[in-house]
């Protein structure tokens, strides 16, 4: 089927269902960051493969909405004779709908693919202009998507307490007590990560996110109804792993379970920002009382226990060995003939191969950003979206990558010289690194949110009239998503206090369009600090151990204490990583970690 | 009348009006920071004279609610046999009411003395438990308050454009355009500061706040109805000053004006956080459509125009001369016989006398905090609340003071040695000063709020396990309130972006109970910075020019750049202040500003 035919078939359904518009978001029913191939409805309809976006189909027009990252890509991938292109933020989808349709129009949407918050806001916005938001029972895309990929049935993993550090029962009881105290009968969980954390299970449903896609109901007695594909658990003893009060049912049993709760008039809590509208509508129609609140798993999941922290340390050591071997190899490769035989793709492959040498490596934690010269100025660059750039023509190379290990998740960015960096590149690299060090050296009392610390990482750039247009740090899971909340270090960031066990990235950068890009990223875990002062304060314990490229450092832009920090850091890298290296790699590390 | 009699008379009124409770807040009908003596209802009823608090009278009990600053004072001032003491934040007034009264109870309040926001929240909270919030027509306190002070009739001042920098008409037209664009017919203004700013008037109704207490209606055509005591404007030509479309009426004409707006079905905007509930209830009952929004005067008032900035610079120079002369005198006085003849009161008086020598000095901008030794550990200490402490027994002295000048408002804190400070005091002073310098040296792009910068001033203390329990910086008016919004530098601070012309204080501190207190405060004005970077950034231009006490600095706790900043600062103090000093004062300044 061509995209024109697909569009026509959806339009045909619209007519049948008396709809004037139908909205196709990128999200699936879990509303998480990643979706599996069978949920790529936006791609099926429009050809757009980005990780965020939406489309709207009207009787005679259609439009694709993407954010700033994808304005070029959408033009390559979508047929302009079928779809207008719009900026998701600047020309929001609902504004487009309102500008195209008149009072009385019916706007269809699939309530499984939108959050409850979106639904409430959209309904109000459309109603104010006399339009009706209509939940469809059958998604027109699904009806016409022939040869749709089947969901992959990869076996689940029951994560032993040796890795998780806490039995599922203890986790469930702790949250169930909170539910009971709040007079809540059950908590609906709809995102994969909190459910996998709660039950100490993992999966391989989606690349990079080692989780079983699922829904769950956590009851106030600590019992859990898990809704997931049972075939993934074949041969696994979930009862022995979790206890008798965790039961497994297929996805299609969820509606019945929600209806039963509703029939009992239960008070059911859910997070309107992450739970799909469908589930809360089913609950409400059946008579449940809905309580909107943050997902209570998110905060305990974010605060890693000592076993998870120890696992993360171990994962980072082994990840550091792989990255050091890669950087040592890269430096050697540059000295050998024909460096231009390597490109961004072969570099990324080499790094992956080195990581994969370790038995506990499962998969990358996200799609590697391997970017030479001007490509590094695009924060979300991927070498597969065009022709990978060849080594040999640029001064600096940025590689942002990570691994999923059974005991932790890693995420590291290094920017290294692959040619002759000029003074300005070295100045800007040093300002970025200085910001990284200032944040890494921070201490702060209980109650401090990432929003309050973000400026530390930016101030050296701000002083000189520079900035970077992304957050400074995101939360990182434990053998789970490389992006997690609620902690976040960002100008628009979270006021959720940073506290013991939270893992965050520290990744200031600088990007000069069509020229180069710089980012310095380590992961850090929040720990109590030891002072002789009046009050307890926290500090960041560094997890990532890979040298920062001395060739890019201009110490004129550093204070004595930054140089001291770097020398200490490099001495520790040597101490931790050198026992795992040999030969030329070891020689490289010795050079790379000598004092400034 | 004793307080017991006063309480009994209020209870008598409660019975007559069939009320089970009556709430007496500290606020007056303008809900500003300061209230005049005739509005001290809380003091009349309870004897408590603090600047914030409330009381609630029940049939058989009564309670006074104060915050952490006043827990000692309230015990001195209020008769425990009449009033229970409660913590305003930890045991909120409405929770007390709910714990004492049953369903169906009627809780009286004077709608002129509470904000609309408070009213909405309180009504909801009480209604949820079946209690009724009843606005009283006649405040029982007012009915029984015999010998109540008359409002003082100090003449108003028409502030010439030489000081204000912008004609009232230009200010009014700019905001009126915004109102018209938002389809608003009129803006109700209820706080003294924005009205005085808008009309370029000033007054002497309240000590330290040079404003005419008033209400105003700003219409979408730029015309203003001002409601204030006409006697204050006798002999002044308000029409010549403001234009024919600014009219003056007495306070009691406001109700009629609001009713007329309501009868026309006008859309009237007001700030529910600062406008009293009475005005919006009158409007609603008369048929007006109320639009809740921030007071549109606040932001333009906060962004001083170049004339106001220049005026502030001049006011600070002259204020700096007075403070330098005071500190020089203090050092000499300590060398003379019997320093114990001076106490916190005589020191404050001396400083005021030196300020008052200048013709443009009007009054203090707030009540001077003159605190020796352990008294300085109380952030809101006032020497009049007990016996002023005598010079000669303590190591350090903290003086926080400011002046109202026709061309600007000042606020400065210096902490100085008056004995033998020990190493720990010097360490902590230096950490506070280091934080002050780090904030003063900040640069930041458009969109940065004070909340993002606050940690800069605290980080040196946080590093060593210390903190201070107040905001780092507040906005400061131009010959208006020494505390103004919306800008604020604080952990719970404002995300309103800091921008050109905003004046803020920079005042980190450290307080050790029963021992000593430290604070270093300058005022700073936000200005565009000059860089060769990619983006425009702002920086702080310093306004305050008085040396920091070199005897309290331990440079081991400073980096090279802090010492450079201090030496530059002191060189500039010398350059700006020395031409105004002579004799021993000049010698003192030379010593006080020599390089570290």
TrEMBL record, chains A, B:
Q: Which UniProt keywords apply?
A: Aminopeptidase, Hydrolase, Metal-binding, Protease
Top-level taxon: Bacteria
GO terms of molecular function? aminopeptidase activity
UniProt domain Peptidase M24: residue ranges: 313-527
Give the matching InterPro entries.
Answer: Creatin/AminoP/Spt16_N, Creatinase/aminopeptidase-like, Creatinase_N, Pept_M24, Pept_M24B, Peptidase_M24_C, X-Pro_aminopeptidase_P
Q: Which Pfam families match?
A: Creatinase_N, Creatinase_N_2, Peptidase_M24, Peptidase_M24_C
State the SUPFAM superfamilies in the record: Creatinase/aminopeptidase, Creatinase/prolidase N-terminal domain
Domain (Creatinase N-terminal): residue spans on this chain: 6-137
Domain Peptidase M24 C-terminal: start-end pairs: 537-596
Give the EC number(s) listed in the UniProt record.
Answer: 3.4.11.-
Kindly give the Gene3D superfamilies that the UniProt entry links to this protein: Creatinase/methionine aminopeptidase superfamily, Creatinase/prolidase N-terminal domain
Would you identify the family this protein belongs to, as annotated?
Answer: Belongs to the peptidase M24B family.
Q: What is this protein called?
A: Aminopeptidase P family protein
Give the originating organism.
Answer: Oceanimonas smirnovii
Q: What is the lineage of its organism?
A: Bacteria, Pseudomonadati, Pseudomonadota, Gammaproteobacteria, Aeromonadales
């Amino acid at each position: 089927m061509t995209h024109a035919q697909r569009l026509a078939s959806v339009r045909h359904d619209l007519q049948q269902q008396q709809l004037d518009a139908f909205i196709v978001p990128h999200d699936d029913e879990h509303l998480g960051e990643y979706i599996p191939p069978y949920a790529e409805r936006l791609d099926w309809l429009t050809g757009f493969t980005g990780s965020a976006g939406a489309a709207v189909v009207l009787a005679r027009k259609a439009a694709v909405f993407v954010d700033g990252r994808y304005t070029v890509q959408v033009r390559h991938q979508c047929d302009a004779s079928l779809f207008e292109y719009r900026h998701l933020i600047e020309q929001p989808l609902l504004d487009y709908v309102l500008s195209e349709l008149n009072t009385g129009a019916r706007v269809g949407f699939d309530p499984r693919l939108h959050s409850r918050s979106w639904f409430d806001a959209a309904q109000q916005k459309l109603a104010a202009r006399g339009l009706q938001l209509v939940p469809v029972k059958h998604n027109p895309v699904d009806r016409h998507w022939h040869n749709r990929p089947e969901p992959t049935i990869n076996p689940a993993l029951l994560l032993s307490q040796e890795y998780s550090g806490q039995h599922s029962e203890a986790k469930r009881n702790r949250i169930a007590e909170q539910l009971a105290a709040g007079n809540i009968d059950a908590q609906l969980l709809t995102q994969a990560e909190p459910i996998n954390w709660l039950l100490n299970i993992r999966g391989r449903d989606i690349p990079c996110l080692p989780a079983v896609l699922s829904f769950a109901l956590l009851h106030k007695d600590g019992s859990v109804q898990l809704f997931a594909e049972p075939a993934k658990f074949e041969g696994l003893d979930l009862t022995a792993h979790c206890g008798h009060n965790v039961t497994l049912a297929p996805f299609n049993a969820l509606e019945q379970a929600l209806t039963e709760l509703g029939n009992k008039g239960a008070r059911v809590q859910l997070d309107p920002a992450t739970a799909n509208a469908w589930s809360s509508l089913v609950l409400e129609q059946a008579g449940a009382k809905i309580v909107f609140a943050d997902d209570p798993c998110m905060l305990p999941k974010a605060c890693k226990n000592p076993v998870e922290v120890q696992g993360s340390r171990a994962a980072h050591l082994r990840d550091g060995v792989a990255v050091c071997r890669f950087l040592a190899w890269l430096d050697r490769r540059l000295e050998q003939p024909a460096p231009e035989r390597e490109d961004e793709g072969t570099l990324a492959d080499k790094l992956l191969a080195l990581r994969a040498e370790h038995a506990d490596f499962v998969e990358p934690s996200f799609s590697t950003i391997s970017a030479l010269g001007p490509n590094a100025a695009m924060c979300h660059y991927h070498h597969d979206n065009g022709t990978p750039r060849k080594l040999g023509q640029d001064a600096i190379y940025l590689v942002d990558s990570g691994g999923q290990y059974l005991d932790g998740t890693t995420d590291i960015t290094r920017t290294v010289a692959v040619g002759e960096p000029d003074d300005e590149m070295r100045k800007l690299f040093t300002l970025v690194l200085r910001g990284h060090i200032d944040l890494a050296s921070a201490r702060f009392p209980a109650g401090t949110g990432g929003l309050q610390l973000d400026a530390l990482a930016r101030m050296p750039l701000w002083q000189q009239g520079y900035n970077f247009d992304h957050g400074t740090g995101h939360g990182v899971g434990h053998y789970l998503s490389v992006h997690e909340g609620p902690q976040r270090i960002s100008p628009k960031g979270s006021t959720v206090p940073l506290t013991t066990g939270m893992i965050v990235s520290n990744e200031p950068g600088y990007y000069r369009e069509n020229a180069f890009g710089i980012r310095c990223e380590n992961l850090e875990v929040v720990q109590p600090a030891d002072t002789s002062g009046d009050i307890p304060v926290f500090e960041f314990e560094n997890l990532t151990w890979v040298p920062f490229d001395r060739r890019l450092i201009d110490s004129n832009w550093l204070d004595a204490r930054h140089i001291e920090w770097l020398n200490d850091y490099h001495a520790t890298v040597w101490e931790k990583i050198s026992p795992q290296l040999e030969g030329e790699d070891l020689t490289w590390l010795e050079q790379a970690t000598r004092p400034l």
